[in-house]
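During the reporting period the student researcher (J.K.) took over the structure-prediction task from the postdoctoral fellow and processed the backlog of single-chain submissions. One of the processed entries is reproduced below for the supervisory committee.
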Amino acid sequence: MPATTVAVTGAEGFIGSHLTEALVADGHRVRAMVQYNSFSSYGWLENLPPDVLDSVEVVLGDVRDPGSVQDLVKGAETVYHLAALIAIPYSYRAPHSYVETNVTGTLNVLEAVRHLGIPRLVHTSTSETYGTAQTVPITEDHPINTQSPYAASKAGGDRLADSYHASFGLPVVTLRPFNTFGPRQSMRAVIPTVIGQVAAGERTITLGDLRPTRDFSYVKDTVAAFRAVGTASAERVVGRTFNSGTGEEISVGELVTVIGKLMDAELEIRSDADRVRPANSEVMRLVCDASRLRAATGWAPAHTLEEGLAATVAFFRDPANLARYKTGIYNV
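J.K. obtained the following structure tokens:
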């Protein structure tokens, strides 16, 4: 029986590259959209083993262009839509670009899936759409409270996905991951920021606010959640939104202590005002209730925070990997 084709937008990124690798391991052929660039760079896909890449068709394109999206999804059994602008600090500087990518780009994916009759679309949301927790743990019924232009643009994409299911019966399911970490993550995120600085020899770590708490999931668990909602029976998942997360929270300050112990390093923290979000924009607490996802698909996280951190430390301690990062600057 020939392998089925699935399509992934944002395949060159952190989670997208891990998802692409896992989908190939599941026996699929993956049509992977990489944002067009003049360097012909495939991002993190270039780090996948040759036998994995044999089952990946890399397509240079852009979700902001409807034609690119139509060509990508044509003939796919499932579309995983991960392409997005995600850096919160940069969304303060360039909010228009977030709307173009995260709202209009999502609209283009929805339209392509609708007109080409694709059987399943998995749309990616973010826990940032909830804002600071009003009740904990956060269920999918928690109010949406967008505290940054990034969060607002992602909530806009979510609402479009919901409307296309209600209006056209589009077979879309939304996954809302809480904070994901692991190898290949951008230095704009807190865990690579800390580990990268330590791996580069720093013992005074530059950070922003240490008080916010987050629910951190290892990337393989988040990828498993994508695969779960992508393959579950339609009656269980289509038209619904699902959180994925561990249900455990840790503050940024406590996280630094855990990483210091793992890396056998005594760390001091230096506060950098440039890394602190505007007061009303900082999300102070996020902790996930993933019981809806567990009930619908059987998904559950398989890795502890410490296990995931150990794998991430090993990645950044590889000189070839560390060389790809700029650990001495604030990566917006």
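The committee noted the following: The chain is about 40% helix and 15% strand.
J.K. will present the remaining backlog at the next meeting.
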